[in-house]
Amino acid sequence: MATGQKLMRAVRVFEFGGPEVLKLQSNVAVPVPKGRQVLIKVHACGINPVETYIRSGTYSRKPALPFTPGTDVAGIIESVGESVSAFKAFVDLFQKGDRVFCSSTVSGGYAEFALAEDHTVYTLPETLDFRQGSALGIPYFTACRALFHSARVRAGESVLVHGASGGVGIATCQIARAHGLKVLGTAGSEEGKKLVLQNGAHEVFDHKEVNYIDKIKKSVGDEGVNVIIEMLSNVNLNNDLKLLSQGGRVIVVGSRGPIEINPRDTMAKETSIIGVSLFSSTKEEFQHFAGILQAGIEKGWVKPVIGSEYPLEKVVQAHEDIIHSSGKTGKMILLP
Ligand code: NAP
């Protein structure tokens, strides 16, 4: 390590495996921004289920070891690369002291500082705090992709957010409600149900209740529901196909295993099952979703709800909880 090199605390993964491979280290070099990169002093970082899949080595995208997990940083620009400085006089680029949030990082967000490419960084208005800023990245961009790109929703349609109490679910409810959809949501606890209703759902159901699917069927009637945004497809896809309207679509956001379905269930009503991959979005699509979200922040309908908070020291527990604890009440975040 070069003399004078600034050091920081950061979580490092040296081998793929269970949550115990997440190691908090206090002597990690603070990265230096190059070109159009920016260095962000992290005030909060969202924790997403995908970071557990990446950590375990089972995800399609495997980072080179060692690495620091985390993409959804909110914080303050500490310094900028030479191209950002050079062009700052001509275009409105980021500068030291700006409040920002990210949809991706270069060096990882579970750390005191994170490096990001400037096109994945967005201004964080004063109306949202850093905790809320760290809940925007993966959840809100995924919700936009699922609703607008995959389901191509139209105002007046109905949407069932199957798993509405977590990061992506709350985001989906807020965005769908603001765009004129009839919103139904599900949660697995009383507190979660209350939160779903407070964040855009017209009606809420308990996915832990034995007969909740019958209750949804009764609510949507013979017409069925136009769109289902599904967080746990390996459990729900078979039932979802029976809830859809003519031309209805199930959008597979989350799935943690296989499920048997009867393809015949798609035929009479000509329904579709469509997968979502946020990371397949192009730069332009990210900018489009960011535009929708910036408008929502300005108008006040994008208001991330923060659930459990963990200091960096508790990162192992956080990775256990995001997969195994039920009764979600918003977004789980890490505080450096
Ligand atoms: P999260 O914050 O952990 O929330 C999980 C949600 O699933 C909670 O609302 C939970 O409700 C609900 N759930 C639990 N049991 C359920 C059941 N039987 N039926 C329906 N929902 C149930 O996770 P997240 O960040 O919102 O992500 C949700 C899923 O989407 C994860 O699998 C994640 O990997 C995936 N995802 C995919 C993409 C993509 O690009 N495809 C992007 C982001 C996320 P209770 O806790 O109240 O029971």
- Flag low-confidence runs: none
Bound molecules: NADP nicotinamide-adenine-dinucleotide phosphate
Q: Can you write the helix and strand succession as a string?
A: EEEHEHEEEHHEHEHEHEHEEHEHE
Helical/strand content category = alpha/beta
Terminal CA distance reads 23 Å
- What's the shape? globular
Q: Can you count the helices?
A: 10
Q: What portion of residues belong to β-strands?
A: 25-35%
Number of strands: 15
User: How helical, in percent, are the residues?
Assistant: 25-40%
Q: For the report, how would you describe the main beta sheet?
A: 7 strands, mixed
What is the CA-based Rg, rounded?
20 Å
How confident is the prediction overall: mean pLDDT? Answer: 96
Describe how the helices and strands are arranged.
Elements: E1 7-13, E2 22-29, E3 37-46, H1 49-56, E4 73-80, H2 82-87, E5 99-102, E6 113-117, E7 121-123, H3 130-133, H4 137-150, E8 158-162, H5 167-178, E9 182-187, H6 190-198, E10 203-206, H7 212-220, E11 225-230, H8 233-243, E12 244-252, E13 272-275, H9 283-299, E14 306-311, H10 315-324, E15 331-335
Parallel strand pairs: 8-9, 8-11, 9-10, 11-12, 12-13, 14-15
Antiparallel strand pairs: 1-2, 3-4, 3-6, 3-15, 4-5, 5-7
Bound molecules: NADP nicotinamide-adenine-dinucleotide phosphate (NAP).
Q: Could you describe the 3D structure shown?
A:
The mean pLDDT is 96. The protein is of the alpha/beta class and 336 residues long. The chain starts with 6 loop residues before the first strand and ends with a strand. Helices cover 30% and strands 27% of the residues. Strand 11 (225-230), helix 8 and strand 12 form a beta-alpha-beta unit. Strands 3, 4, 5, 6, 7, 14 and 15 form a seven-stranded mixed β-sheet that branches. Strands 10-9-8-11-12-13 form a six-stranded parallel β-sheet, with helices on both faces. Strands 1-2 form a two-stranded antiparallel ribbon. It has helices spanning 49-56, 82-87, 130-133, 137-150, 167-178, 190-198, 212-220, 233-243, 283-299, 315-324; strands at residues 7-13, 22-29, 37-46, 73-80, 99-102, 113-117, 121-123, 158-162, 182-187, 203-206, 225-230, 244-252, 272-275, 306-311, 331-335. Residues 48-50, 138-139, 142, 162-169, 186-189, 192, 207, 231-232, 235-236, 253-254, 276-278, 322, 326-328 line the site of NADP nicotinamide-adenine-dinucleotide phosphate (NAP).
